[in-house]
Design a protein that fits this description.
With about 80 residues, the chain is mostly helical. It has one domain (about 1-60). Helix content is about 70%, strand content about 0%. The chain contains 5 helices and no strands. The longest helix is centred in the C-terminal third of the chain and has 16 residues, at about 45-60.
């Protein structure tokens, strides 16, 4: 996987990869983010896209309790 990560550093790989990992783990945000981070491209960008897609589908019900406790306050 590192060979793929080194070769692909542009948006043409990011845009299709992030929704693909989200689709493979639609109800499990943690698994989707792990799969995305192990992939290629800019991890911050791909994880943000994946998290947005999976989070829109699951809402806070899909978020790990620890993550909800540690997040910054909203509002």
């Amino acid at each position: 996987m590192n060979a793929v990560r080194r070769r692909t550093r542009s948006g043409d790989g990011t845009v299709p990869f992030a929704p693909w990992t989200a689709a493979r783990h639609p109800g499990d945000p943690a698994a989707a983010l792990r799969a995305t981070a192990e992939g290629f491209g800019g991890v911050d960008t791909t994880c943000a896209i994946t998290g947005g897609v999976v989070g829109a589908a699951t809402g806070t019900a899909g978020a790990p309790e620890e993550g909800l406790r540690r997040r910054e306050p909203l509002g």
